[in-house]
Automatic annotation (TrEMBL), chains A, C:
<comment type="pathway">
    <text>Pyrimidine metabolism; UMP biosynthesis via de novo pathway; orotate from (S)-dihydroorotate (NAD(+) route): step 1/1.</text>
</comment>
<feature type="binding site">
    <location>
        <begin position="191"/>
        <end position="192"/>
    </location>
    <ligand>
        <name>substrate</name>
    </ligand>
</feature>
<feature type="domain" description="Dihydroorotate dehydrogenase catalytic">
    <location>
        <begin position="3"/>
        <end position="285"/>
    </location>
</feature>
<dbReference type="GO" id="GO:0006207">
    <property type="term" value="P:'de novo' pyrimidine nucleobase biosynthetic process"/>
</dbReference>
<feature type="binding site">
    <location>
        <position position="98"/>
    </location>
    <ligand>
        <name>FMN</name>
    </ligand>
</feature>
<keyword id="KW-0285">Flavoprotein</keyword>
<feature type="binding site">
    <location>
        <position position="126"/>
    </location>
    <ligand>
        <name>FMN</name>
    </ligand>
</feature>
<dbReference type="GO" id="GO:0005737">
    <property type="term" value="C:cytoplasm"/>
</dbReference>
<feature type="binding site">
    <location>
        <begin position="68"/>
        <end position="72"/>
    </location>
    <ligand>
        <name>substrate</name>
    </ligand>
</feature>
From TrEMBL, chains B, D:
<dbReference type="InterPro" id="IPR012165">
    <property type="entry name" value="Cyt_c3_hydrogenase_gsu"/>
</dbReference>
<dbReference type="InterPro" id="IPR017938">
    <property type="entry name" value="Riboflavin_synthase-like_b-brl"/>
</dbReference>
<dbReference type="InterPro" id="IPR019480">
    <property type="entry name" value="Dihydroorotate_DH_Fe-S-bd"/>
</dbReference>
<comment type="pathway">
    <text>Pyrimidine metabolism; UMP biosynthesis via de novo pathway; orotate from (S)-dihydroorotate (NAD(+) route): step 1/1.</text>
</comment>
<feature type="binding site">
    <location>
        <position position="227"/>
    </location>
    <ligand>
        <name>[2Fe-2S] cluster</name>
    </ligand>
</feature>
<keyword id="KW-0249">Electron transport</keyword>
<feature type="binding site">
    <location>
        <position position="219"/>
    </location>
    <ligand>
        <name>[2Fe-2S] cluster</name>
    </ligand>
</feature>
<dbReference type="InterPro" id="IPR037117">
    <property type="entry name" value="Dihydroorotate_DH_ele_sf"/>
</dbReference>
<dbReference type="InterPro" id="IPR001433">
    <property type="entry name" value="OxRdtase_FAD/NAD-bd"/>
</dbReference>
């Protein structure tokens, strides 16, 4: 079965890619299976200079999900280019660079540098990290700022730009519209919902950062809703994510309107999950009457008769 | 590191809320160092999105078995404890870096363990003992009910026991015993709660040694940056416990 | 152990109350256990006249949660007063009326009428129902409207008014501040997150209303985060809810800053859950070193050193 | 309605993806009407927040057992099917209103079932047969592999079988058989997929009868308004399937 999908900058063998921050820079998972199997790979966020991130604990388990507050720890864009990207050049899989920053200048600097590297086929502009005081989440919640940073990055990027949206907003379609106006080539959603767990014995928030980002199956209904709503208002391609653990979940995102589907938290539970999903996807597609991935994209809207841009 | 469905062949409660579990699997044929751990999937469906790291407490290559000991703490370990002989457990392992038993030249090793930090030291004591190294073990527990493997350790070396309330062994902490006995050793090896690790590494500051540390983990394989510990001398300023550890040279990392 | 809590209008034997919409008007659960055990009871939303609600299916199961789109079905405030409240008068448990509407006038009318009934000890002003086109969610997402409807209802209500907030906003503290300015006596949170499930075989959203409200353990981290954030900015008492299934969950909400804790979805999984939680609560409190419920409220903030009004 | 941990005493696959399960429990001593259902808790923890409604297909007061039949459809029924004899299942029941077998005066009953709607009709057929009422059963299935209880039904009355593909019984739908045979009866009783219920109740529009309907449920006891069906003549304009149903007079409700 034809699993190919073609998105701006990304010629994918299949619609499955690991989500940023859940796959490092690929090396660890390369020891488990062949990364050439993947449709694409999104690497961990890059910032202008090295960041050490938040204190520990940085993760907590929740019902059908987890909280994380890694805090954009990364060695900085130059080190990433020097030490991490060469390894990925050995694979025939498009690499997406997740770009973060505290200021427009930082976003622009990182995007300019990393987009010039030949393995990078697209940028995922992370305006939605909830885990750092200056992590760019203000850019993800204010439509004017979102548009501005998108336009600034588009100007310097050599590759298409997917803007990764935060679900922690009153109306996600407003932000989607703004980044579309800023020139985004695609959208990526959702990043994590902000949440907290309190340690009963310690009598304080469990994460050192107190607040963290909620991901995993728990958030899938929110993600599906947002992909569906955005699909009704724009034709920009969507990389959907949030709680995917099975090929059935992938089909649900495709029906909602995603053209590619990222897998994050599930990699921790089942390190082989991306390869397993890719293996199961043809059967699941044909079970539900589809003859290719393209065939399924957006098909959950056929009977749609209401405008849901506002729930 | 491999991924395997390990088959449970025995399950025993060996102290208060403490379960010993032995698995059969090919993984036992890997070169497993003391201090390495299994990253275990818990329960079914999406009830537990995160695996649980549990140290390897024994390996029998002949029988192809691996033994772990764990304490019932929260939902995950309580669910693990419900698995029965015959059931399979999804495991990644051996994970991380263990105590470098083969690389160290030494005559006398001091092993200091606290509570559920004791199990990996049992496998370490076995390996050191096999190599003819003299082993001294200092084990600390809250109270008598928590104590396990006392006899087993005595077969491998000099064993000292401390409990917080004096209900078994000496009343006090492992550091009290170390102070009192003034052991002579080449390397120390310690594993236990962070408070104990700090006390021991401060006390033995002038000695060479290794510590094994715990932190909440995501991936368990080095990809998610959940489990970092400051390591001022390293290039990046930190180490990953799951991949660069859990065993570190005592002076390499800064305990929180 | 002393489980009492005293809140404006509510003299509660314990902090546990069923959440609105998950307990009908009490009759069904009265067949299972003695409603006098409960700290309070929140009844199903009342509107000005009868509403038939949305089409079916109205519920879907999700990972550690569920979606509902009942759509405020209820017989209308007059019928509720006539047919439902008399039954509840037989119990020695304070009743909270959940008040909904499409217009300020409707909210005011319902609140005026129902607050005069002797069994009603407080009003929960529902400005957060995501499941009806005109369900008042606009009042829950716009701070000006939130303040206005709160003030209008306060003016006519004979009993204290708790405003129930929607989690589907960029910054919940802004809305909390607004309703405090409007004169709210307390806050109630969270209502459901908006979500969607797509039926793979049907190739369309499973719920007839397409979008529904996500509840259950999946959302607890979001609820805890919001209670904690709001506790840092106001002293208004908080009725916390979202994903509570155990006495430990109740303690987590108390530590976060809630003074009472409502249980919704869990009633469907375990119909006796409220009574079981009340039974277990003393043991859980003493296990973690508390000698009463009052003793635990807000204690998760002891070590707090950062202002989290904005995540 | 009571709440009980029912003990599984047998579990059998009796047709394709169709499981018959029998429980032992005090609940069997309640007055259970055909058409009433159990509301079953599935799995552990919070994997399944909603219970699953399954009709009662048989009651043996003497042995104190209850039997259900269910089709493996999604995660819930697949998890249910993994429960083994000896395990306990958390059940609410008997829930809802069944067929009023004792109140109806009749000589001849027509039972029309489709697929997994057939099981409650088996218990109904037993109860009617016991009362000396003549029973005609028309059962429809997709194909031969899906058919169950054929012999059992034949012992209770005249049994007609239809399959969509003709692989067992007659090729066609239950409505084809009803049309062809032109049965003479006092009341009809039908249960099955909504499409079939509509076709049957249209076809038998001039007769007296009962239908049993399905809808996704929340509470299962009448508190959440998840399971409503329009009922134009009732005071409120709707009925709750879990409490006022699942069995209704055919003309009482409007099928979607
Ligand atoms: C390298 C390593 C080796 C370990 N070896 C052992 C051992 O041999 N025996 C043993 O009993 N315990 C060991 N632990 C601790 C063990 O992982 C935790 O006790 C266990 O994960 C608790 O899970 P839970 O679901 O019961 O508790 P919960 O508190 O319900 O767990 C919630 C989450 O926190 C994590 N967590 C809680 N406590 C710890 C902890 N101390 N360390 C790491 N993560 C934690 C859990 O993994 C889970 O993700 C080890 C930890 C590490 C990091
Ligand atoms: C009164 C009543 C009696 C029933 N009797 C039987 C019976 O005797 N045998 C049998 O096999 N099935 C019966 N059903 C249908 C049965 O409840 C569903 O097949 C079952 O809930 C599916 O669960 P699942 O997890 O396998 O499927 P999933 O599709 O994964 O379930 C997801 C959710 O949808 C609900 N759901 C899915 N299909 C249905 C349905 N048809 N009706 C109601 N809820 C549904 C589930 O309960 C669950 O909440 C009955 C339904 C009702 C309402
Ligand atoms: C541990 C962890 C680290 C993450 N780091 C990043 C990151 O660096 N950049 C980013 O855009 N998203 C990051 N995310 C968010 C994921 O990419 C993804 O959007 C989210 O987790 C939802 O998908 P999931 O439910 O499949 O995990 C991270 C998520 C987790 C769990
Ligand atoms: C079936 C259902 C119906 C609900 N109806 C109402 C309602 O009428 N009014 C209201 O304020 N909240 C309503 N809610 C929201 C709950 O009161 C509660 O805020 C939410 O479900 C979170 O709590 P939980 O996770 O414990 O269910 C409803 C929730 C469910 C699941
Ligand atoms: S747990 Fe993921 S890097 Fe260590
Ligand atoms: S399922 Fe709750 S009212 Fe019927």
């Amino acid at each position: 079965m034809n699993l190919n999908v073609k998105l701006p900058g990304l010629d994918m063998k299949n619609p499955i890619l690991p989500a940023s921050g859940c796959f490092g820079f690929g090396k660890e998972y390369a020891g488990l299976y062949d990364l050439n199997l993947l449709g694409a790979i999104t690497i961990k966020a890059a910032t202008g200079s090295a960041r050490y991130g938040n204190g520990t604990p940085r993760v907590a388990e929740t019902s059908a999900g987890m909280l994380n507050a890694i805090g954009l720890q990364n060695p900085g864009v130059d080190q990433i280019i020097e030490n991490e990207l060469p390894f990925l050049a050995g694979y025939d899989t498009p690499i997406i660079a997740n770009v973060a920053g505290s200021t427009v200048e930082e976003y622009v600097e990182v995007a300019r540098k990393i987009s010039k590297h030949p393995v990078i086929k697209a940028i995922e502009l992370n305006i939605s990290c909830p885990n750092v005081k200056e992590g760019g989440v203000q850019f993800g919640t204010d439509p004017e700022l979102a548009k501005m940073v998108t336009a600034a990055v588009k100007e310097v990027s050599d590759v298409p730009v997917y803007v990764k949206l935060s679900p922690n907003v009153t109306d996600i379609t407003v932000i989607a519209r703004a980044v579309e106006e800023g020139g985004a080539d695609g959208l990526s959603l959702i990043n994590t919902l902000t949440g907290m767990q309190i340690n009963l014995a310690g009598r304080k928030p469990l994460l050192a950062n107190k607040i963290g980002g909620l991901s995993g199956p728990a958030v899938k209904p929110v993600a599906i809703r947002m992909v569906y709503q955005i699909r009704q208002m724009t034709n920009l391609p969507i990389i959907g994510m949030g709680g995917v653990t099975t090929a059935e979940d992938v089909l649900e995102f495709l029906l909602a309107g995603a053209s590619a589907v990222a897998v994050g938290t599930a990699n921790f539970q089942h390190p082989f999950v991306c390869s397993e999903i890719i293996q199961n996807l043809p059967d699941v597609l044909s079970k539900y009457g589809f003859s290719s991935v393209e065939d399924a994209i957006g098909k959950g809207h056929e009977h749609a008769d209401t405008n849901l841009s506002r729930a | 590191m491999i991924h395997e469905q390990l088959q449970i062949i025995s399950r025993k409660t060996i102290a208060k809320d403490t379960v010993e579990m032995t698995f059969h699997g090919k993984m036992a044929q890997e070169d497993i160092l003391p201090g390495q751990f299994l990253h275990l999937l818990v329960g079914e469906g999406s009830n537990h999105m995160l695996r649980r790291p549990i140290s390897i407490a024994g390996v029998d290559k002949q029988e192809s078995t691996i033994t772990i000991l764990f304490k019932l703490l929260g939902e995950g370990t309580n669910t693990l404890a419900k698995a029965k002989p015959g059931d399979q457990l999804d495991a990644l392992g051996p994970c991380g870096q263990g105590y470098p038993v083969d690389e160290l030249q030494m005559k006398h090793a001091l092993l200091v363990g606290g509570g559920i930090g004791v199990p990996p030291l049992y496998y370490l004591a076995q390996r050191l003992h096999e190599k003819g190294i003299q082993v001294t073990i200092v084990a600390g527990f809250q109270n008598k009910e928590q104590v396990f493997y006392e006899e087993a350790f005595r077969e491998l070396g000099n064993y000292y026991l401390a409990t917080d309330d004096g209900s078994a062994g000496e009343k006090g902490f492992v550091t009290d015993i170390i102070k009192k006995e003034g052991f002579d050793f080449d390397q120390f090896f310690t594993c236990g709660p962070t408070g104990m690790l700090k006390a021991v590494s401060t006390q033995l500051e002038d000695e060479e040694g290794f510590i094994s540390i715990e932190q909440r983990m995501g991936c368990g394989i080095g990809a998610c940056f959940a489990c970092v510990v400051p390591a001022p001398d390293s290039e990046s300023g930190y180490k990953k416990i799951c991949k660069d550890g859990p065993v570190f040279r005592a002076k390499e990392v800064v305990l929180a």
